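I have been asked to look over a protein record a colleague put together. Alongside the sequence sits a line of tokens, each denoting a local backbone shape. I have pasted the whole thing underneath without changing anything:
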Amino acid sequence: MSRNTLILYHTIRAGMTKQMADAVAEGVTSEGVTAAVKSVKEVSFDEVVAADGIALGTPQPFGLISGAMKQFFEDNWKD
């Protein structure tokens, strides 16, 4: 059975979080797992639910997750 991991990220300006997401994908695929790297701005909630594993990457403005990542979960996560 094939396993897939979604690496969901949001990056600001310099793109450092995207670079980290790509590094995580490299590690995941080296273990035989399929990895999809997606920006929080381009992913659907159905893709998140369909993934076997999820890695989240976000900068820490003011010590919190980015506004875009927070907004994604607020818009999509249902009780």
